[in-house]
Amino acid sequence: MVCIVLQVACGTSHTVAVTEDGKVYTWGSSEYGALGVQRNDEAVTKAASPCLVDVLTGQNIVSVAAGPYHSVAVSDEGDVYTWGWGGSFFSGAQRSCCACAVPSRCCDT
Predict the structure, then answer these.
(1) What is residue 7's predicted lDDT score, i.e. its pLDDT?
(2) Chain centroid to CA 43: how far?
(3) In this predicted structure, what is the pLDDT of residue 87?
(4) How far is residue 24's CA from residue 8's CA, in Å, rounded to a whole number?
(5) In angstroms, rounded to a whole number, what is the distance separating the alpha carbons of residues 14 and 37?
(6) How many CB atoms lie within 10 A of CB 20?
(7) Which residues pair with 73 in a beta bridge?
(8) Closest CA to 46 of 72, 23, 26, 24
(9) What pLDDT, in 10s, does the model give residues 52-62?
(10) How many CA atoms lie within 13 Å of 11's alpha carbon, on the beta-carbon side?
């Protein structure tokens, strides 16, 4: 299987990429939930190889960005998704947690 990567962004110790088919993959350290990947309802703490951010499956993601401990994805419809520590605060998301390990839509562009 060939996977064509359109964009890659790096945080302090994690990496996020988007493929041409709109899927998001992350790898590295998930300190503060930066990977946005869960297995058996538990946040993955580290990944040596790319893991699909399956919460975003069904969204056609066209762009990604990363901060020190957070990640951001933008869909083709302009929806913005954030996860990790700091992303929700800086994006204006109305969340009660500071470090969210699961991507969630925070606002429309």
Answers:
(1) 98
(2) 13
(3) 52
(4) 10
(5) 12
(6) 11
(7) 64, 81
(8) 26
(9) 999 999 999 99
(10) 29
The pTM for the full model equals 0.86
Q: Across residues 63-70, what is the average pLDDT?
A: 95
pLDDT at 69: 92
Whole-angstrom distance, CA of residue 34 vs CA of residue 27: 9
Distance from C-alpha of 93 to C-alpha of 82, rounded to nearest angstrom: 8
The long-range contacts involving 12-21, CB below 8 angstroms and separated by at least 24 positions, are 12/68, 12/69, 14/66, 14/69, 14/71, 15/66, 16/64, 16/65, 16/66, 16/71, 16/73, 17/50, 17/64, 18/61, 18/62, 18/63, 18/64, 18/73
Outline where the chain has alpha helix (H).
87-91
**The tokens of 53 are what?**
């951010």
Sign of CA dihedral 27, 92, 62, 77: positive
- Give every CB contact of residue 38 below 8 A, 6+ residues apart in sequence: 44, 55, 101, 102
Residue type, 17: A
| Cβ atoms 84, 100 nearer than 8 A | yes
